[in-house]
Automatic annotation (TrEMBL):
Name used for this protein in its record: UDP-rhamnose/UDP-galactose transporter 6
Domain Sugar phosphate transporter per the UniProt entry, residue ranges: 10-193
InterPro entries to which the protein is assigned, alphabetical: EmrE-like, Sugar_P_trans_dom, TPT_transporter
Keywords attached to this entry: Membrane, Transmembrane, Transmembrane helix
């Protein structure tokens, strides 16, 4: 259901934030979804409960990405400040959920307290934590510098890269369906980048344009030099000469 995040972002921004996308951008999104669906659809198995959970995850992910963008603008902060503010709350939320999902029974052999924490396992846990921090940083930085929709489009390259690396490193079978899906998805990404380029260029030009110089407002009792010279000349002409 990860591919559903991209259309969810489009629908939410169009309905609740009154944002309008060009027809070429919408066409590129449809092309990307079709291509990624062909790449990953071979191993897709849908059940009613799984569909509900996946749909809820797609909507919540889309809302999280959009809110991260709007919150940075609302609070006038950068991505690292927002990440620093959000991380403690996320840690508390995850700790509460872990209390109900993890096995803390000391008598159970599968309890987390009875695990044999070898150096390799500890290294994997640390690397996983570092990777999670990196993902959060790239999420906030990417969305802040671009947009939630652009971030989702770029993230589909990760799916294609995983398929390519799996084929090269682990000799996974690259079927014609996956190959066609990869070509279609890459074509959609190229179409999106071309369609979104004028908008990005306009924003960059507007951002880099020099700001107009601010002039100091003139006080009511302040006159320019020419006005003062004219007044002095008129005053001297009206003054009678003494004999």
């Amino acid at each position: 259901m990860k591919i559903a995040v991209t259309p969810c972002v489009c629908v939410i921004e169009m309905l609740f934030y009154k944002k309008r996308f060009p027809i070429t951008v919408l066409l590129s999104i449809v092309t990307i979804i079709v291509g990624v669906g062909l790449c990953t659809g071979a191993s897709l198995q849908t059940e009613p409960l799984g569909f509900i959970v996946g749909a809820a995850g797609a909507v919540s992910t889309a809302l999280y990405q959009i809110w991260s963008k709007t919150t940075q603008k609302k609070l006038d902060c950068n991505e690292f400040q927002l990440l620093l503010y959000e991380t403690p709350m996320a840690a508390v939320l995850v700790a509460v959920i872990a209390y109900f999902t993890e096995n803390y029974n000391l008598s159970s052999p599968t309890s987390i307290w009875n695990q044999h924490y070898t150096p390799i396992l500890i290294t994997k846990i640390i690397c996983t934590a570092i990777g999670s921090v990196g993902i959060n940083i790239t999420l906030f930085v990417g969305i802040n510098r671009t947009s939630p929709l652009t971030y989702n489009v770029v993230s589909h390259l990760k799916t294609i890269s995983i398929i390519v690396l799996g084929t090269i490193l682990f000799q996974e079978q690259l079927t014609s369906k996956r190959l066609i899906g990869m070509v279609v998805a890459i074509g959609g990404i190229v179409l999106y980048s071309v369609s979104n380029k004028p908008q990005s260029g306009g924003q960059k030009q507007e951002r880099n344009s020099p700001s107009p110089t601010k002039t100091r407002p003139k006080r009511p009792d302040e006159d320019d030099k020419d006005t003062v010279r004219i007044r002095r000349a008129a005053k001297s002409s009206r003054t009678p000469t003494r004999k």
